[in-house]
Amino acid sequence: MASPDPNVGRVLDNRYELIELVGKGAMGRVYLAKHVMLGGAVAVKFLSQTLLSEKMRDRFFAEARTCAQLGHKSIHIVRVTDFGVDASDIPFYVMEYLQGENLSALIHKETLPLPRFLSIMRQTCMGLKAAHEGISVDGKTCPIIHRDIKPSNILVTPDDTIGELAKVLDFGIAKLIQEDASQTQGFMGTLAYSSPEQMEGKELDHRSDIYSLGILMYQCLTGKLPVYTDNHTFGGWYKAHHFQEPQKFEAVLPDLKIPASLAKLIYTCLAKKPEDRPQKMAEIIEELNPLEQRFGEGRHIGHRIGTAPENISVTLGNSAQTGVAGQSSSGRSSSGQESHKGPSPEEICYLQSWPKNKPIKSIVFPRRLKTSAEPLITLWVMLPKQEIEQLKINRLYTQVYRNFLCTLSPHPMAMWLTALHNRHYHGAEEARWLTCYLDLKTPKGQEYLTQLSQQGLYRILCFALEEPQRCAHVLTTKVNPAQCGLMKQWIIHARTWKGQEQPTISKEMLRHELDLIKPKVQENLDSLGDGGSFGISAL
After folding, report:
1. pTM check: above 0.85
2. Catalytic residue among 82, 148, 170, 209
């Protein structure tokens, strides 16, 4: 029987209680831990006691600093939040705790189908792009080369926001490339995934990671390496990477069907000379984006749809004249029971007028309305009068898509997203997209998300461009319970996030994700025929 781990139960810095050992490697051990004050799960990595030299200590903290900065730049890199030394003077750092499987475990079971492959690879490239663009060191921007891209260093976690979230791990042998710094001579990396120049101990740039990525992509699709050796020695792999041409996909898996452009991209990444490969990760992402939009959206939508299509909840007419749906003007509900005293939520909505400080044009913004009970969370939109009339008259043919997309890095930001599509008005045209942003570093943004997660619904107030004096139509839509749970997690992370103040970059990231899901969402709206409402969880 194995002796109990003496570290389990320890509390570091009066904050992190170690729960269990979850991993160990050459550099040290990783423990699942609990934040004593906040209650959230984190991972704590200790430097191995056998490596307690001054040089390794410096390297360990350099890894922590590198991951801390990179984690702020991209959600596709594991995020480091703290570091220090314990009572025994052993260095440690704290990072986000990720539950999932690495790519090595996934492709050991089966090769990745094309839609899943495209999603994971694009996210991996986004993480590496952020690393290659560099971090700030002493006021200078220094690119980061990972130097050990392989399946076990890509973690894939289930994520209700985008289905699966891919993160690049282990920058333990990453090196800051500085103009005045001498490069490490000699080999560092994993033989089967190393570039030819890496095998030679040459100075490396980001194109070495691109070669390793090519091997990774090939293996994800085939389950095999593009080059191989019977002699698993340094010399054997040196010859394979330098002189052996990658096996053709059709020779390895005759039944594998992949786009010719993707095959060409992977072969190019595997070029022996760095100058013959794609020169930047941005070039690879540019190639993957249209492929993912074409082949990947069907799979994403399957992960994102939180509920089956359902009848939307829509109020009828102007409550001041006709009453609210389900309630007569006599004050009794349709069931004959006494209604609550005071105006109903819908009546309060219909009494609203367009704010004088807002322009008379098609804009969208959130607003909380005070009531005698809890505040109403509403989304205000100005539309042409004719469009609003069609939403009211042909309400059974109105589909509503609602979603909340969030990124915590480089700045915590959520996109509140609603799309309206009325078959009689919009026809084959694109839906009416209503988007606004919630800055989760501000009390106002946090309050909106908190109340949305607690109430599980919001109301859309429609105002006519031609007659903005009074709300013309109200739609009520529910938020998926799973999405409500995610919102609460986002708020917790946002309150403790100490990232860079770059809200515009986060907004651009969210806009990019919206562009990726738009075509499939539109397809679903078009296919819902007789009306419905569905919620999707996305990034």
Report:
1. no
2. 148
